[in-house]
Amino acid sequence: MKVNKYITGLSMAAISFALASCNEFLDKYPDSRMDLKNPSEVSQLLVSAYPSAHPAYLTEMYSDNTDEQMHSTWSTFDRFQEQAYQWKDIQEVRNAETPYQLWEAHYTAVATANEAIAHIKSVSNPHDYDAQLGEALLCRAFAMFQLSTVFAKLTIKPRRKAT
Asked: Which of 83-92, 128-137, 148-157: highest mean pLDDT?
C-alpha cells in the first residue's frame, strides 16, 4: 500500500515538473520560421518570394506548336501532356507544371512577398528597407502577372467604329 502511494506521489511530482517546464519550449519558433529584425533578414526571406515553377511547358502543350498536327506518329509522353493538348481538365498532378502546382507555387511566392511588405510597413524606419520593399513588390507583381497569364479569362471587346 505504501509503495502505491509512493509511486503515485512520485508520478504526480514528475507530471507537475514536466508541465511546468513547457513554457520555454512553447515560446520558441519552429526551425523553419523567421523572426524578422533587420533588412538582411527580410532579404533572406525574399529569396523564397520567387515562384518555383514556370508555366512554359503547360502553355506549350496548350498551343498548336505541339507535333501532333505535323506527324501522324506523334504520341503523348504522359497523361498530363495529352490532357493539356486536348484542353481537358488536367487530372494528372505528379507533373511539376500542372495548373495546381503553378497556382500553389505562385501564391506561395505572393504570400512570402506580402509577409515581407507587412513587416516593412510595421517598422519605425521603413526607409532602411527600400531595396527590400522594391524586391517584394516586384516578386508579388511578377507572380500575379504569371497567374493572370495562365488563369485569367481573356475577353476581347470589338472596337467601336469612329463616326
From this structure: 128-137
HSE-up of residue 24 (Cα within 13 Å, Cβ side): 3
For the record, the C-alpha cell of 60 comes out as 506549350
Measured distance CA(44)–CA(40) in Å, rounded: 6
Q: What is the pTM of this model?
A: 0.66
CA distance 77 to 61: 11
Round to whole Å and give the CA distance between 163 and 160.
9
On whether the CB atoms of residues 76 and 96 are closer than 8 A, the answer is no
Q: List, in order, residues 6 or more apart from 95 with CB less than 8 Å away.
A: 57, 78, 80, 101
